[in-house]
Specification:
The chain is mainly α. The chain is built from 7 helices and 2 strands; from the N terminus they run ααβαααβαα. The longest helix has 24 residues. The radius of gyration is 24 Å and the shape is elongated. The protein starts with a helix and ends with a helix. About 30% of the residues are buried. This is DUF2391 domain-containing protein. Keywords: Membrane, Transmembrane, Transmembrane helix.
Length: about 180
């Protein structure tokens, strides 16, 4: 039970206690009406504005779906391989591209305040599980899909890695959005 469920439960208990203290049937009816309104308002909670905590397999599935949807154009577009070839020979630009993709995900999850995303049980006390999950599923999906679809050949690991990084950047954005936009 999360804190909003606990707060609703506490409010309902207060309504029940209030209903026992009022004297007239009209007052009891007003308390029941207010109680029903509180329950209805809680049931219609908005998609945006929820507090997002933890990172479980449903979050991972949402991140995978967002990653894959943003990745399909990267898998079939020849420009991905061209940019990968360009970056393979420029390690500083490759590192900048990788770090830029990570920074985009951090911005979407924790800075832009699209949703109220809370860090819960971070790895080593500092690395958010959600960040690791979103980045990990994006990178792994890029590696597997680009390899399976013949877009990279690991006989040239620097070129393959650079090409995967090019696909990873938009895929990680898709994973971050796919994870937090449903509001779960």
């Amino acid at each position: 039970m999360d804190s909003s469920d606990e707060e609703l439960q506490r409010l309902l208990e207060e309504f029940d206690a209030l209903a026992e203290t009022v004297d007239s049937p009209e007052e009891r009816a007003r308390v029941r009406t207010a109680r029903r309104a509180a329950v209805a308002a809680a049931a219609e909670a908005p998609v945006f504005g929820r507090v997002i905590r933890g990172f479980d397999r449903s979050d991972l599935a949402e991140a995978f779906l967002g990653s894959f949807l943003f990745g399909v154009p990267m898998f079939v577009e020849g420009g991905t391989n061209e940019v990968g070839a360009f970056l393979a020979g420029r390690p500083l630009l490759l590192a900048g591209t990788l770090l830029g993709g990570i920074a985009l995900v951090v911005s979407i999850l924790y800075v832009a305040e699209i949703q109220d995303v809370r860090v819960q049980d971070p790895f080593f006390g500092v690395i958010p599980r959600r960040l690791v999950g979103v980045l990990g599923v994006s990178f792994l999906t890029a590696v597997v899909a680009m390899t399976a679809w013949g877009r990279v050949a690991w006989s040239e690991p620097a070129l393959a890695f650079a090409t995967v990084v090019v696909a990873f950047v938009p895929m990680s954005v898709g994973a971050a959005l796919g994870d937090i936009l449903p509001g779960t």
